[in-house]
Amino acid sequence: MGTIKAVDDLSISIKESQIFGLVGESGCGKSTVGRTILRFWELTSGRIIFKNRDITDVDKKSLKKLKSEMQMIFQDPSASLNPRMRIGTSIERAMKIHTSYNGSDRREKIVALLKKMGLQPEHYNRYPHELSGGQQQRVGIARALAVEPSFIVLDEATSALDVSVQAQILNLLKVLQRDLKLTYLFISHNLSVIDHFCSHIAVMYAGKIVEIADRDTLFKSPKHPYTQSLLSSIPEIGRQKEGSRVVLKGEVPSPENPPAGCRFHPRCFKMSGKCKLEEPQMIEVEKGHLLACHLVDLK
Ligand code: SF4
Known about the structure:
This protein is an alpha/beta fold and 299 residues long. Helices cover 36% and strands 15% of the residues. Bound molecules: iron/sulfur cluster.
């Protein structure tokens, strides 16, 4: 049986205390990236470097320690909490595995965390079904923070919430990031959220990164036709000229069976002959602005 690549030839570098956004349509491989970095899944090739250390092939003991330094917050808070476990027990379970706090210290810390999340101490003894979606996500964040990580992958962490609750959770995440000097990989299909939340952004299409830049550069002068089309579809955040709306035709290909050449070529409004034949390589077009598109060569 052959190997199916959900993500291919990917290279991103996230600095300490940065909020790095990864954006793309559903099914483009964003979640695979997050889960692979956290070693939920194995790499077929390549390396993962965390705090100057190669963690690609670490043993089970080291991996357990790493799991406390690197946490994940999921899209659906109700699915990530055990329905039969009280909130306090659920958080404490992670602490028992990954920290050396004793029983009373754990309880004290959990209550303090619940308060920090905007919850009440009495939520300790509640079950997930007794909480709203926003409260459940606050518990999810508390559980991730309980093991004192420095890096958190947020996988569509606010996408399942109502808009007003989403704003509250984003504000909470921003305050926590600032106060605890956390580093986030923020995965989302929602460009408006990425715009407000992230300082650096990578755009992904069909299993590959096609453009990386800081937020202002990406939103003011997107260079990849896919990024341009994504931004133009949301006029309130697109900082491009009026009338530059690009409507993409065709279907998003599966990353497991991408088109030859540039993966975007069947839908690209700037496609040339070379695009069908050769896959463009990632090139730094300006300091910190990386692009994978043959348009660079044409210039
Ligand atoms: Fe479009 Fe060609 Fe650039 Fe791909 S390489 S995005 S097809 S112009």
